[in-house]
Design brief:
Layout lengths: L1 E5 L8 E6 L4 E5 L5 E6 L9 E5 L7 E3 L7 E4 L5 E7 L7 E7 L6 E5 L6 E3 L5 E8 L9 H4 L6 E8 L5 E3 L12 E6 L5 E6 L5 E5 L1
Antiparallel strand pairs: 1-2, 3-4, 4-5, 5-6, 7-8, 8-9, 9-10, 11-12, 12-13, 13-14, 15-16, 16-17
Length: 209
Amino acid sequence: KSSLNMANPDGSGWKKISDVDLRDISIASIPESILISFWNAPDAYTETSFQTVSSIIEAATNTASAGIFGADYLWNSDGTRLLISHTDKKGGSKIELATADDRGENFKDLEIPTLVSKAAWSKDNQTGYYALPGSIPESAVMPNDYASGKFNTTDLFWKVDVSTGKKSRVVDLKEVPVGLDAANLFFNADESFLFFVNRVDGKLYKISL
């Protein structure tokens, strides 16, 4: 039987937080709160169950499920909003980016075909930066085939205001080298650079903002 637990770095103070009925879960603490979120690993054939539970107070888990498949989640820095990538349907080939509030509700499609692993929140908590993938085979099952390394994407770099949906290019098309498959995006302290790992060669790259 699986469970979610907490402990000090040396293993002392072990505490069970919640039973877990999911396999291969992802875990993320919710910023500026006592809550922890977890969900099953993205799979195009499995409905995603996004759950939150208190790390301090004994309480039941809260579950938000909108009937979506292959979902993955990314919190902004104050824990008020999520970016969510998911498939267009069960076993689908299209991936879509959406946003929701801290309960996983007020779901809004941003009409951006990208993955959470290709996105990062700005510290203003309103702007999402993302790599927009190209070269996804029409027959691909997303996100499964991409996660298993069956193909690489060719990315361009954009940002979106999640409140208005307004999108703008971060880097001019002619300035983007060919063969960038970006993952694990993050900023430096003043957000003057956007860093990412290129899945093609495993090297770290940066974009001047």
